[in-house]
Amino acid sequence: MNHLFSNRITKLLPPVLLLGASLWSISRITLMSPAWQLLLTEALPLISITIAMLLSIRFNRSRYSFLLVFLALAGLSQTIFRGQLLPATENLLFAALIANSFIFSFFKDRSLISIHGLVRICFLSIQACIIWYIGLKAPGEYLSLLNSDLLTLPDSISIFVQLPDPIVIAALFFNLVHMSLSIARNSSIQATFFGCQLGLLGIASGYPHAAFVPFLITSCALMVAMAIILDSYDMAYRDELTALPSRRALNQSLLNLGRHYTIAMLDIDHFKKFNDTHGHDTGDEVLKMVACKIARIGGGGKPFRYGGEEFAIVFTGKSPEQTAAHLEALRKAIESYKMVVRQGKRGTARASGKQARVRRGKNDPKYKSLSVTISIGYAKRNAEWRMPEAVIKAADLALYRAKNQGRNCISV
């Protein structure tokens, strides 16, 4: 559990490190030549924003496209248009950018050239008209509303951000939500929005150094580009249903194995019959449960979804004797786990997915307790099986022996 939690915490590290690097770089820029200073403060933000935008469009990540637009508008307001906007307009602009970056993080990615994309563009256009009208026609009333004493921050906090306290409090709350969701869902999207929200607050701080805003823009654009690349990698090498590395990732991993390793092949017993009886949605819940148990395998095993109801575990540098106890513990953990699903209609497990993960309804006749078992076969690299593919074939043959021995057992 601690290992899984620490893996989720690491999602927040790239945004925090990039923001920290931008702050550290400001103190070093004065040591550079004027040409390098010009490159870092003017060319680099534009290049990074452009690259991140092209990636977001190419991979149809519209949430990131809009986030980049919000960052660009924030940067322009503090650089090219600095001092030209009325205070009310500038405050309302940052309030809208911070709120929209929070709202858009929950939207599904849709093509910009679609009805969904056009609706979102119209939504932002209407906001722009409202900001212009309020900032031009009623700045006094607006400023008095935002500077209400109902929400005030200590001077030690509010002095760092030149925005009304209610906006800062809302932004801090949004950051807390992003951080919590990033950890709870292991979401790189929420982690990226978390970092960019901090970047927006930094841009709004009014820090006088000329390189501060360009460096923050560059850092946030790099966050987005990195998140798109890592998400694309996950889509290619990670199974969407179980969240385990896919067979493609296994094939890649096999290329890097040394001379000593053991490979185990696992299969859910009678899975086709289980699907036919309880429906494919319940079957999906079973696959997720089994994958969750396999992901916690000890002994240094690295799990993969091989295909269908079959999984593979690679133990690098381990002998069969060293892996047997861990495989047996896994078999027992899956055998003893009870799932509670709704009886009656087939295929209703998706609607009752929570029932499949929480132990409720045990005394309710509408619910039924189910369990599954697995069979395991494993083999090690030796003089007869030198290539990883041969070891996998040997482990598969051991798996069939386990099936023939009555299932729910381990064979070597």
Q: How much helix, percentage-wise, in residues? A: 55-70%
Structural class: alpha+beta
Task: Tell me the Rg in angstroms.
Answer: 27 Å
Mean pLDDT level: 84
Sheet of most strands: 5 strands, mixed
- Number of DSSP strands? 7
SSE string, helix = H, strand = E? HHHHHHHHHHHHEHHEEHEHEEHE
Q: What is the global morphology?
A: elongated
Poorly predicted tracts of residues: 1-5, 345-362
How does this structure look, described?
With 412 residues, the protein is α+β, with helices and mostly antiparallel strands. The chain folds into two domains: 2-237, no CATH class; 247-411, Reverse transcriptase/Diguanylate cyclase domain (Alpha-Beta Plaits), CATH 3.30.70.270. 61% of the residues lie in helices and 9% in strands. The chain contains 17 helices and seven strands. The strands form two sheets. It has a five-stranded mixed sheet, sandwiched between helices. A two-stranded antiparallel ribbon has the order 4-5. The chain is elongated and about 80 Å long. Residues 1-5 and 345-362 have low confidence and may be disordered.
